[in-house]
Amino acid sequence: MTTVAELPAGFADKVLSAQSTFRSVMDAMARPGSAQRVTASVGAPAGMMRGAAAIALTLFDHDTPIWLDAAMSATPDVAKWLKFHASAPVVADSSIASFALVGDAKNLPTLDRFAFGSNEYPDKSTTLILQAESLTQGPTFEMKGPGIEGTALLQAMLQPRDLFQRLTINEALFPRGIDVVLVHDDLIVAIPRTTRLVASGA
Amino acid sequence: MNAPAYNFAYLDEQTKRMIRRAILKAIAIPGYQVPFASREMPMPYGWGTGGVQVTAAILGPQDVLKVIDQGSDDTTNAISIRKFFGKTAGVATTTSTTDATVIQTRHRIPEAPLHAGQVLVYQVPIPEPLRFLEPRETETRRMHALAEYGLMHVKLYEDIARFGHIATSYAYPVKVNARYVMDPSPTPKFDNPKMDNCPALQLFGAGREKRIYAIPPHTDVVSLDFEDHPFTRYRFNAPCALCGAGDSYLDEIVTDDKGGRMFVCSDTDYCESRRLAGHRGSESAAPHKERAHG
Question: Is the whole-model pTM more than 0.90?
């Protein structure tokens, strides 16, 4: 059993690390498909990538229920770490979660298990944080939408393989929908609900 | 001794997290007004408390901040907000549009084109474009949910019926990404076309009304109009009296009590850089030269 003293550290510099991480997430969200780097030095529990840990410490707190997938909740370490550093409540019901941390995206539940928000308050939706195998190599995805000049190209090994296909519900649901932040190590790429897949190839 | 110590950029970290989450949702849903728990700031409502909170949540030590009030870097509001962040965040400040990474603005978009990597933060008094047509928040929420914007077109039509043209000259409603009708804050409608496909990120903060909304870069922003009454910009038909610019938005300045007046650029940085480049208007004297003491 891990005691608090044995938990990995959080940010080395709470204030400025959170600020620089937020700017990376904001730039990623404002320019879908573009890879942004998290530069802050951060400790992370086993199973959690550095980028995901930095995002957690930047955006999670007692106001944000967090849902963890099976990989993240395999050991109590992640939940404990989140509780200690962010005071974020971990919930079992994914449909009320502000954020979902997904360590093993292969087994991502169907998207309707998460919150889409309402037509009046589409912001009350779950943001998915998916750990990806690679955000620099793999099949190519061509995207368009707000934040993208023309089209944007992303090369990534994504799980689940049909992620973009699943995300097409964003088109029908808009303004409700799911925003996704992909993480690999210290790289992050955002796919907000307005982004549409134009083409994909090997 | 014991001088009050503020957190970096004044706001506490929990408040910043809450605002940051709202900003991310605002970017993901362009033009939609995200409610947020606006804090009391050390300045009165109407002085940019919404813009200041957004700026405080995004600002980092590497940023270079510019603040403008009606295009001017030199007015009370602009100077005090610039000083506020100089003091609480220690950031570098500038008056140059191109050098700034974060520009907080009250009711103007700079004349110099913005570039990628810049963030334009608007101070917004009333974020709801439908508010003067429908006072109930529950109703305007539903109208946005259903994209029911007929009322706004009726308002513009009434302008035409009464004045012969669309007389709305500022806070001219726009449609963002073909979905949400949005109030661009009380900028002159001259600035509306600059919001369309802008390479910079545009964030809007309304402190008293507790709303944050955004336009991501390269997003379609269309000013509402009619086929037979298309949207037009408006500008006084005169060159700037100081720099001679024929393309900038102008302020009218009364110079005496006999009807004398002059028109000058509202964007002081634009006007100054043009004068530095040697452009002269009808009222500008030759540049002052220091004489060496004998």
Answer: yes
